[in-house]
Amino acid sequence: MTACPQAMRKMLDSGACRPAHLRPKEPDGPAMRSMTTAMKTVRRPAGRTADRGGEGEAERRSRKASKETRQLQLIEATIDSLARRGYSDTTMADVADGAGLSRGIVNFHFESKEKLLVATLQHMYDEYSAHWRAALARAGDDPARQLQALVAADFDRSICNRRKLAAWCAFWGEAKSRPTYQTLSGARDADYQNTILDLCRRLKEDAGYAYDPQAMALALSALLEGLWLRLMIGAENVSRESALQAANEFLMSVFPAHCARKPDREEPGRQGNND
Predict the structure, then answer these.
(1) DSSP letter (8 states) at residue 22
(2) How would you write the pLDDT of the chain (275 residues) with one tens digit per residue?
(3) What domain range is 170 assigned to?
(4) Which of 82, 178, 189, 195 is most buried (CB neighbours < 10 A)?
């Protein structure tokens, strides 16, 4: 006895003709509900991914800020150590202790003493450059005011203090034998020197001075460096105030048409300190 084609097709499609062990098992009611619940648990709203992406970006910014903060903290501790111990006696351990951080943190950020010192020198040059450039911008377009502003900026307390002067002295003592330091300082010094040279040229053109601008710019730079050196070694009767006064005397002597003498604000013989 045979079934009609339609009935046979239904039987084949349903698997009724297959042996029992080959028939697909359909999940019963409780199993189906369990699967549905699990799928709902895994499924997340579309907006959640965007939220987590935003949180990740914020976390990355926070980590970057924390990294920069840690590096600056270690650089400042390096300046302290250079001022107290000098170049050769400054160690990674000293820097870690001074910053209140573990030695592993120092190694993580800078890997070696040399890399830490290069980063410290870079930081000091960047700070110095930003300082004199800001002073130059505040002085306006008048070359005499700009030159006076540059000179005054060199003896500002934020730049010219015993701690930083000692660190500069430590680096300068090593520069001759370290090409990296020479390269780093050479570019910064050239920018500063070219600015002074340009101002000397403009002042000569304005007043008809007889000096050679190149020689005058070199003389002024040498004067400023010499005064810094005297402050570094703690020469007797030399302070920021007296050093600035000496530099201004030089300006008044070579640029008489532009740099007028101002009355003293302090009592004669009164000296400041270099802290």
Answers:
(1) G
(2) 444 444 444 444 555 545 555 455 555 555 555 555 544 444 444 444 444 444 566 555 545 558 888 999 999 999 999 999 998 899 999 999 999 988 888 889 998 999 999 999 999 999 999 999 999 999 999 999 999 999 999 999 999 999 999 999 888 877 777 877 777 777 778 899 999 999 999 999 999 999 999 999 999 999 999 999 899 888 778 999 999 999 999 999 999 999 876 655 444 444 455 66
(3) 121-275
(4) 82
Q: Which amino acid is at 23?
A: R
Question: How many CA atoms does the CB half-sphere of 25 hold within 13 Å?
Answer: 7
Are 66 and 167 part of one and the same domain? no
pTM of the full structure:
0.69
Q: What is the CATH number of the domain that holds 212?
A: 1.10.357.10
Does residue 92 sit in the same domain as residue 135? no
Counting the structural domains of the chain, the total is 2
Residues comprising the chain, all counted: 275
Which two three-digit tokens encode residue 236? 């007797």
DSSP state of 181: H
* Contact status, residue 154 vs residue 247, Cβ threshold 8 Å: yes
- HSE value, Cβ hemisphere, 13 Å, CA-based, for 230: 19
